[in-house]
Amino acid sequence: MSELRSEGSLVRYYCTAGNGMEPFLIDELKRKLAAEDVCQLPGKVLFSSSAGINRVRELKAAERLFLLLKQDSPVQLSAHILPAKAASVLQSRVLGDKNQWTSAVMTWSRLQGELAGKRTTVNTPSTALSVARKREEGRGTEELREEEEEEEEEEEEEEKSSEEKKSKTVTVERGGKLSREICGVEVQTLEKKRKRDDEEGKRMVMELSSCTQNGRKGMLSETDLYGRGSGLDHNVERSCRTMEHMAEDFAEKNVELVTTTGGSDKTLLPPSRIKPEPPSPASVSFRISCKCTGSLSRYFSTQEVSKVIGVGLSRLLGWKVDLKNPQLEVNVNLSDDHCLLGFPLTRLPLANRSYMKTTGLRSTVAWAMASLAQIQPGFFVVDPMCGAGTILIEAAQEHKAVCFLGVDIDDGQLQKANENVACAELGNRIHLLKASSMMLPLPSASVDAVVCDLPFGRKFGTKTNMAANLPLILTEMERVLCIGGTLVLLLSPQLSCLLKKLLAQKDTGPTSNQETEPQVGLQHRLPPPLSSLKHQATLRVSLGVIDGLIHKYVKKDT
User: Compositional bias (Acidic residues) at which positions (predicted)?
Assistant: First the structure.
């Protein structure tokens, strides 16, 4: 059982990652978080870090983030064991010691509190919401100060009126019994106020969601770039993140009941006066999320494993099972290689990008491709088949002092890219151009890095014969790339084999027959040799149903 240490010291986590993404995640962990005790399992990476949880959740190569509860050897059962005995062994091996569970829940609660601290705008009353909205619109500090003073005066008046109501309530008391009528009126009044606050919060969410509708529509020629940047301020990205956080934070509540000193009456307090308190270890509702493979799956189904562990956990800690809306989810992974338990730290996967309106290539893979390009400040980076612009946006999120250009021949794809760039507020650094990848309107040796996902598969494939056009596309990429520049391509297994054959050809000139043959269109143009591209790496990554291969090349001087 892993030890979960106090705040300010190392905490043990694990992340899930797509197949082939583990090396990228390990490199990111060491580089950004100075992670320690990094351990790789198939589809998972375990690590320890003292970095704040808000830094940890910014990981780009990870799919999901968990607090590690337990890493142990696999559960093994003998061939002739009785079912009851097998269930007992499973419970004993998986559950372990009660104190370690309670310690883990305390650490999880603390981390949830840190995450909630970044989302204080979620449950503020309507007056506070209006002030926050005006802050986002860039109003002056003096005006904000006046509004805050007015808000404090209103709150003082509310407190006074509340005290007056309480005093009236006491006068109605007869024979030690409190008048239920006045209490009922007070509760109804506060309940109406809470509903008004909720409606105001929902209206704010609707206003914030409008950030995704600011992408400009229109068609472009080869010489025109999409212009943007004046219609959005720098608060849109923060607003998008706020919406995601509203969905994630199940620990915060709109209203909390607080017992007064008398102990007999309860007062509804506005959430702005209360910090969200995590559940105590003795009152946790939970749900088991289980994945069981290997030999153990011959004894128990996944549902049976979940039931056995759930019943044992209820007996051990007194927790209650809640399959629909639990406070805590317990993730259990059992295989022939390991026994792994953890608590999810975010409701949504880390791979869900709040700054992306329309998804294209898997965001984690797009980030990995950008990281392979070794982008430096001052670079000019081009994606000649940009699609929805996922690669460029992921790269721009990491590298600030860099200029990016996305090229695509399809108007629909350019429109999606335009909307994504607008939502991510990157219009001043990402420009879009309509042109063919086989005839890029760029000078030779003018680009520092080319990063491209060549369309393939049912979802992203095109009507164009990509195999036939691959030599011409590569020729154009090589032409615009400067000496020492990096080329990163994502290909299907079939295109990967074709690329290797093309680059394996000897550097020979055209034959006499080819020289005299008339050229009609691009399909009959003979590509020049591609020997200036030096192979660096080929990495296989999972794209879901199918795999892709990332090729990295560096252009050398010939």
Answer: 144-161
